[in-house]
Specification:
Elements lengths: L6 H17 L7 H23 L4 H27 L5 H26 L1
Helix pairs in contact: 1-2, 1-4, 2-3, 3-4
Length: 116
């Protein structure tokens, strides 16, 4: 199975698109700060899944899944910060936070499967 076929990859890719869409409304002053950090963290989740799957050894794949999980934790914080700065609504926060936390659980599940 290709990594792109995994539900966790699909959801992570969807989150990237959501983050790009939502950050369009952020103040221009955040262009090189919060917007950039949010986009990088979001992209890192599916990108590391793909990169890890392309490695030769399972140990490397696990490492990249761990990196994806760390990026997911990072985006969870940025979503909270965005809400608290009133850049996104409570409803937007709820949707994004739920999606990011689901991805984190799914990444943990992939790691558990690999550990057998």
């Amino acid at each position: 199975m290709l990594t792109e076929d995994l539900d966790v990859f699909k959801l992570a890719h969807e989150l990237v698109l959501d983050i790009y869409d939502i950050t369009k409304i952020f103040p221009y002053s955040q262009q090189n700060i919060l917007i950039s950090q949010m986009q990088k963290a979001a992209i890192s989740i599916p990108a590391n899944l793909i990169e890890g799957a392309g490695r030769l050894y399972e140990k490397e794949y696990k490492r990249f899944i761990s990196i994806s999980s760390g990026s997911c934790s990072e985006i969870i914080y940025y979503i909270l910060l965005s809400k608290d700065l009133n850049y996104i609504t409570k409803d937007q926060f709820d949707i994004l936070d739920k999606k990011a936390r689901q991805i984190k659980k799914m990444l943990f599940g992939v790691l558990k499967q690999l550990k057998g």
